[in-house]
Write a structure and sequence with these properties.
386 residues, binds adenosine-5'-diphosphate, binds magnesium ion
Length: 386
């Protein structure tokens, strides 16, 4: 933990000029290893929860509002509890917290006026899901110990991001923050909300590289992909009536009928359907300790995102193409929603230092930016820490 509970408490008291004893909750970000944009197609994904997390120090207060402070943005905002159920989006960071609070109230949770001090070490807007970490941490803080099923929390947070923030996301990020586990990746079935653990081979380091670039079109292009997948489903119904999502179409059936689809939905469906299959192959390769096959699947997944789903960027493609030529690198791919953010790399630990040095030098030279590196050990799921 980059920040101690004592530091959080003291920052909480300073900001809110309070002498309350706050509870502290933690919810992790995640790095996805396989299955990109497959979650909202009812498919499979294989992420790990990170040690990097969003911490919230929270205590009941004597006013009638939710006061929320983000340490990263240095801003405090206040929302009267009585108006939360009908709150309107502000189109800023507070929507992630208020969106969750609003749905809790609508689900019958009587919120207590409280102060929430937010401190997150998940980089924002980099594809490591600082948004879900914030939503999940906020929901646990606002529930304040009241019981709620973790699947329900995950769905509530996803709805908040989709309906209130306006990002039509799948369930992967919130689910991973609530169900991730130390020492393993999880393979999530996004249709029935179950998961199994996928142990990663020893002698393999998972390193995320932050391109430090986030393209402005990310959110609208995301919505466009959601719509294109729906279009592909409706075209595929001509061949396989009754399908509910791209999850229901096998690679074999897709290959037989793909020439009949219109060009864009065809490419989008090809990415989703093959990426769902790659999740199973990736988990099998991990179980067999076959790091080369895991790396090969990483590269195949990247090409699929680059050419079929068209969600990568010059900077990200450069980071991947540079990494996979290097000694000690088994595979590299973009991770997260796309159009910038991070790549994730499978690296032999003996080459981790060389990897960082060479990537930094090449990226500076080509794109004039200094990338950041995150060693991604699987971390624990969201919980109260104090
Ligand atoms: P990602 O989830 O990949 O980090 P998103 O665009 O989905 O990227 O979410 C990033 C947004 O979440 C930020 O722009 C901000 O609005 C909000 N957010 C995340 N962490 C914090 C934080 N510590 N304080 C305030 N807002 C945050
Ligand atoms: Mg996000």
């Amino acid at each position: 933990m980059a920040v101690t509970p004592r530091e959080l408490e003291s920052e909480f008291r300073q900001i809110f000029k309070s002498c309350a004893q706050p509870a502290i909750y933690r919810a992790p970000g995640r790095v996805n290893l396989m299955g990109e944009h497959t979650d909202y197609n009812q498919g499979l994904v294989c992420p790990i929860a990170l040690e990097m997390a969003c911490y919230i120090a929270v205590a009941p207060a004597q006013h009638d509002a939710l006061r929320i402070h983000s340490a990263e943005l240095g801003e405090t905002r206040e929302f009267p509890i009585a108006k939360i159920a009908d709150a309107e989006p502000q189109r800023n960071w507070t929507d992630y917290v208020v969106g969750v609070a609003r749905l809790l109230v609508r689900n019958g949770v009587a919120l207590t006026p409280s102060d929430l001090y937010i401190h997150s070490d998940v980089p924002r807007g980099s594809g490591l899901s600082s948004s879900a970490a914030l939503e999940v941490s906020a929901s646990l803080s606002l529930l304040a110990g009241r019981p709620m099923d973790r699947r329900e929390i995950a769905q509530l947070c996803r709805r908040a991001e989709s309906e209130f923030v306006g990002m039509p996301c799948g369930i992967m990020d919130q689910y991973t923050s609530l169900f991730g586990t130390e020492g393993a990746a999880i393979q999530i079935d996004c249709r029935n909300l179950t998961h199994i653990e996928v142990k990663l081979p020893a002698g393999l380091q998972v390193i995320a590289v932050n391109s430090m670039v986030k393209h402005e079109l990310a959110s609208s292009a995301y919505s466009q992909r959601v719509a294109e997948c729906a279009q592909a489903v409706s075209e595929l119904r001509a061949f396989q009536p009754g399908i509910a999502s791209l999850r229901d179409v096998s690679v074999k059936v897709f290959e037989e009928v793909q020439d009949s689809l219109s060009p864009v939905p065809r490419k989008r469906a090809r990415h989703i359907i093959t990426d769902i299959a790659r999740v199973l192959d990736f988990a099998a390769a991990a179980r067999a300790n076959d790091v080369r096959e895991m790396g090969r699947l990483f590269i195949a997944a990247h090409r699929s995102m680059q050419y079929d789903y068209e969600i990568t960027s010059d900077e990200i493609d450069f980071l991947v193409d540079t990494a996979i030529k290097m000694k000690g690198v088994y595979g590299a791919r973009m991770t997260g929603g796309g159009f910038g953010g991070c790549t994730v790399n499978l690296v032999d630990p003996n080459f981790a230092e060389d990897f960082a040095e060479q990537i930094t030098a090449a990226y500076r030279k080509r794109h004039g930016k200094t990338p950041l590196f995150y060693d991604c050990q699987p971390g624990a799921s969201a919980s109260r820490v104090k």
